[in-house]
Amino acid sequence: MTARRVRHGWVLPDDDGIVDSVAIEIAVSGARPVALTRTERQLAAARILAEGGTAYVISKRLRVSGSTAIALAARSALPASPVQAGPSARSRLSAHASGRDGCP
């Protein structure tokens, strides 16, 4: 299986159905660049958020653009119910990143 070069890193094809937990751990730690499938990249982003990280941390550790990091974070922060009052996940992340949400 060969990795496909994208702007900021490597993305493996998602056709094998195998999730490499070691690659996810390496990516979450930011220790070194690692090739991830789209699923592994999404899981790594969710782990970073669960550990208190932000879209900025996602972009640095997974070596993706800021807009890709925001999209990964927004997909990871989707509500369990399709009906939810209030701002979208993307607007909450943008508010948090800019300091408008009142959180330190």
Textual characterization of the structure:
Helix content is 49%, strand content 9%. It has five helices and three strands; from the N terminus they run E-E-H-E-H-H-H-H. Strands 1-2-3 form a three-stranded mixed sheet. The model is unreliable at 80-85 (pLDDT under 50).
Detail the topology: elements first, then pairings.
Blueprint: E1 4-6, E2 9-12, H1 21-29, E3 36-37, H2 38-50, H3 55-62, H4 66-76, H5 89-98
Parallel strand pairs: 2-3
Antiparallel strand pairs: 1-2
Helix pairs in contact: 1-2, 2-3, 2-4, 3-4, 4-5
- How many structural units, i.e. domains? 1
Say how many strands there are. 3
Rg (CA only): 14 Å
Coarse morphology:
globular
Number of helices: 5
Task: Kindly state the percentage of residues in helix.
Answer: 40-55%
Largest sheet: 3 strands, mixed
**Helix/sheet category:** mainly alpha
The succession of helices and strands, N to C, reads EEHEHHHH
Task: Summarize, please.
The protein is mainly alpha-helical. Helices cover 49% and strands 9% of the residues. Strands 1-2-3 form a 3-stranded mixed β-sheet.
Q: Tags for this entry?
A:
104 residues, mainly alpha, 3-stranded mixed sheet, 5 helices, 49% helix, globular
